[in-house]
Amino acid sequence: MNEDLIIEQVHLLRKEQPRCGSRKLLIMLHPFFTKQSITIGRDHFFELLAKNKLLVRKTKRSVHTTNSKHHFHRFPNLAKDFRPLKAHELWVSDITYIPLKDRFAYLFLITDAYSRKIVGFHVSDDMKVSSAVVALKKALAQKPMETIVIHHSDRGIQYCSHEYVALLQQHHALISMTQSGDPLENAIAERVNGILKTELISSRYDDIDKAALSIARAIIIYNYKRRHSSLNYQIPNEVHQQKGPQIKRWKNYYTVPKNKEGNMHNT
Which of 2, 26, 184, 208 is most buried (most C-beta within 10 Å)? Predict the structure, then answer.
């Protein structure tokens, strides 16, 4: 493996996007790794960045939004081989931290994988299950009753909790979770987080009320005004009303064999 070649590509990406984090870099470099037949895991990639002093400088303390060390049941990955052909067939969920003046707030997001529209969100002081449930209820309120949605997330305690799982099952949702720490397993959620934090959300807020108001406005812009490269430069809300395959300008991380696609959409 040519480490110098990898570092050269990282420098090129960082010139265009100085704030690009390590996880996003790994996603962005995936086509390059494939073309060059490079195999590198997440931990090795992070170690390589650290060795070359290319990790993004941390804030005063580390913020971890995923706690997968728990006793709750972990569900299999159903999104890996599935490509949605309309809205509310696959949702992807994630949590990201929002810096405040003297602490952190947390943004819970649920995004429709077909349209890239954010269908549920909540800004909270904490990472409790109840905060995740608020975002989920907003998404469920939009879902047609007859639609069976796959809810995809990491294996964090919020998504594995009895309360969250029970609410999904009550609405006949299929539960899907990542099987490793590879960001490609939840790439759409990672991408939406990146867009919001690099383009639409401020790097810091004075307090949570200002953060919540600003983020709500940012999500409106994202959903109803921002053209999305992965949607052939359409607006998420417009695509949300459509059906059928979309012309992609971004790598499709969720592909499906024809027999599986037929089974899903003929039920």
Answer: 26
Task: State pLDDT tens for residues 84-116.
Answer: 999 999 999 999 989 998 889 999 999 999 999
CB neighbours of 137 closer than 8 A, spacing ≥ 6?
120, 167
Residue type, 233: Y
For 130, the token pair is 């109840």
- DSSP per residue over the chain, as a string? --HHHHHHHHHHHHHH-TT--HHHHHHHTHHHHHHTT----HHHHHHHHHHTT-SPPP-SS--------SSS------STT---SBTTSEEEEEEEEEEBSSSEEEEEEEEETTT--EEEEEEESS--HHHHHHHHHHHHHHS-TT---EEEE-S-HHHHSHHHHHHHHHTT-EEEE-SSS-GGGGHHHHHHHHHIIIIIS-S-BSSHHHHHHHHHHHHHHHHHT--BGGGTTB-HHHHHT-BSPPPPSS--S----HHHHHHHHT-
Predicted TM-score (pTM) of this structure: 0.68
Work out the end-to-end distance of the chain between its first and last CA atoms, rounded to an integer number of angstroms: 46
Which residue type occupies 34?
T
- Decide if pLDDT at 219 tops 80: yes
Let me know: does 139 contact 91? Beta carbons within 8 Å. Answer: yes
Residues in Cβ contact with 112 at an 8 Å cutoff, skipping those fewer than 6 apart = 84, 87, 88, 90, 91, 118, 119, 236, 240
